[in-house]
Design brief:
This protein has 176 residues and is of the alpha+beta class. It has four helices and nine strands. The protein has an eight-stranded antiparallel barrel with strand order 1-2-3-4-5-7-8-9. It is globular.
Length: 176
């Protein structure tokens, strides 16, 4: 992160220009962990969108990424929000594609839990392969507060995620 710990829009857009030219070099090891949403920007905007980001932080928006059980298996993803003990989770797969790379993903199952109790579990139909969701991975690094990740989604929004610990993803994967 830049000095001061808050990613400025101009700094973020410059990192994205560099990633488009040279790729980001982000691999599975840098993605593993429970990522908490911190900041959002709109399409090609240098000004962060504070209200939507604050709402998603309030809901505990999290993207947990863990490696598959076998070396050739895709990544495992859990995208979730929480209100008190009530948690909505979308579970599925992810894979890195290309040199930038893109994190393509799809969700296979929806779960609703209350504390440790599973209230609802439903399979989700596969999405249209031509409209596969993805995050274009821009940059990742570490600072005094943990790890950070910048990515732009298929819809054009850009997000900054934080992961407080490198081994937290392995602990989270063991819980699921």
């Amino acid at each position: 992160m830049p000095p001061g710990g808050h990613p400025g829009g101009a700094w973020v857009l410059e990192l994205e220009r560099q990633a488009r030219r040279n790729g980001s070099g982000i691999g599975t090891a840098q993605l593993t962990g429970p990522w908490e949403l911190r900041h959002l920007w709109g399409r090609e905007r240098a000004t962060p969108q504070e209200a939507p980001a604050a709402l998603l932080r309030l809901l505990g928006a999290r993207l947990a990424i863990s490696p598959g059980d076998q070396p050739d298996e895709p990544l495992r993803l859990c995208n979730s929000v929480r209100i008190g003990a009530l948690e909505l989770r979308f579970l599925g797969w992810g894979r890195l594609v290309g040199r930038r790379p893109l994190l393509q993903f799809g969700f296979e199952r929806l779960e609703l839990g209350l504390g440790p109790r599973l209230l609802l579990q439903r399979s989700l139909p596969p999405g249209d392969p031509r409209r596969q969701p993805f995050f274009a991975l821009i940059a990742a690094g570490s600072d005094g507060q943990g790890h950070w990740l910048l990515a732009r989604g298929r819809g054009g929004g850009l997000a900054c995620w934080r992961c407080p610990s490198a081994d937290a993803g392995q602990q989270l994967a063991a819980q699921r």
